[in-house]
Amino acid sequence: MKIAIGSDHAGIDLKKELVSLLGEMKIECLDLGTNGPQSVDYPDFGERVSRDVSEGKVDRGILICGTGIGMSIVANKIPNIRASLCNDLFTAKMSRLHNDANVLVIGGRIVGRDLAKEIVRTWLSTEFEGGRHSNRLNKIKLIEERFIKHGL
Ligand code: RB5
User: Fold this and answer.
1) For residue 147, how far is its CA from the centre of ligand 1 (angstroms)?
2) What whole-number distance in Å separates Cα of residue 21 and Cα of residue 34?
3) Is 150 a catalytic residue?
4) CATH label, 2-150, candidates 3.40.1400.10, 1.20.1260.10, 3.40.50.1380, 3.90.1150.200
5) Is 40 a pocket residue for ligand 1 (Cβ < 6 Å)?
6) Whole-structure pTM over 0.85, yes or no?
7) What is the DSSP code (8-state) at residue 9?
């Protein structure tokens, strides 16, 4: 599995921890920044990571900003992205089982390092259940396609 990861300045410390974790897990990881403590705009990094997932350059993405809200909003604007803000373990598990989330978002100012690592481990090791949930994801896809084709 290959993962793209990105954050803004508010998520950079947690991003470093998660890049190390992915290395320990022997998961290929593409770090798309930010790389320094300067204030940056989360949409730039949210778009980069989500685009790579959407285009199939990587299998999944991980995004971190202060709360996780901004990155979630951005990621879910990109076609094919099902981003879920998971600041707890139950949500991380359900976002895979029911939503087949392909982008994990974490609030770097909300979640501590150890919990964040456990969220990532859970999210990466939980498979989509399919079945009735596939029908629901198909409906989301149809909504996305309608708006891409026809706009508002
Ligand atoms: C940056 O200060 C903060 O607004 C950002 O990291 C994020 O929390 C936005 O949703």
Assistant:
1) 27
2) 18
3) no
4) 3.40.1400.10
5) no
6) yes
7) G
